[in-house]
Amino acid sequence: RRAMSGFRRIGHDEHDALLRSAVGVKEHEDPLHAVRPGQPTATKRKIIEVPYTETVQVPVHSKVHTKHVEERLVTGTELVPVQKYKDVKETVVEYKEEKVKGVKEVWVKKEVPYERIVRKPVHVVKTKRVPYTDYEQKEVQMKVKVPCDKLEVRTGYREDKVLKTRLMEVEQDLHLHHGPVVVREGTPRMREIGGGRTHGVTAKGKEVFTDGMRLRTGPDRMMQRSYSYGGGYEYERPSSSGSVRSVASGSVKQFDVRLNKPPGEAYGMKFDASDGESIVITKVKPGHFVSSHNERNPEAQLKRGDRIVEVNGVRGNAKQLMDACTRTSGPVKMTVQGRRSRGHQRPASAVGPRRPSSRSSSRLLEDRTLQAALA
């Protein structure tokens, strides 16, 4: 019977170690209160919340600025100085000597012929070469280096350590003597039950990029270490408090949301995919598709803090959920878990099975105690 119920025997040392590592213990009602006269044994049961660390793959989209320089041939016009000459005619005055015969008086009263040189001005036209500088156009080609930087996106994954807890049910037989007097405790038995919690990332792994770089296209905006899909989702780093604590007000409900996404239109939501199994909405941008859907459908709103666990039948992997959201247009069915106030009622068709509250136990410690226990 015990094997069918899923229990396995554990030693007392293992039981004590389980209690020392636990972050919360909830004991059931004292079994001695319901002991009947002559009953030889009673079973003591308790729920132990045990922390453990799980390695999950988180998709990473990194924006990379790549510097690139190209050589291009530019054609231009250059003015080259050229030495030239031109002929210029000018008139100058030169003196020409010529012999003129005349007579002169001598002592002898007699005319005697003689010669003398007379300088007469004569206009002469000469041509000379005058140098001057002229410019001629010459086609030249030069190689110039032009910056052609590129904005590229690398896609990969990162293995993070996620802190989770699992609930273990432990039962132990109490051997009685003469009524509710315990004479001996039997061997403890343990089994795992559902209802554990995800508390957040304890260690971020090294980023591993599995594909080459690609150019970013479209009007989407990205953040550092993030990538904006065509569907409007953006991956961002989880906040220090929002990744560990959820909104405390209201109870957790699971429901379905049906959207009819037009092709090429962005959802207008940011999310956190750090747990690797689901995506948590961290922001709903006003004026976008989801914001308009919330105004038209107040009974099926998508709010900050809601956890999307299934998209069109896909669940269990954050990357697959993101791909199903961003690559799908038309009818989209999302299964969402979110906290809603008690006065907020949804139609019966929209409300799914209620998620068991992990904070129902009054003796479960706060998350800060859990972190200290693992330190």
TrEMBL record:
Return the annotated region ranges for Disordered: 334-375
Q: Which Pfam families match?
A: PDZ
Comp. bias (Low complexity): 353-363
**Residue ranges of domain PDZ in the record:** 256-340
Protein name stated in the entry: PDZ domain-containing protein
Q: Which organism is it from?
A: Pyrodinium bahamense
Q: What is the lineage of its organism?
A: Eukaryota, Sar, Alveolata, Dinophyceae, Gonyaulacales
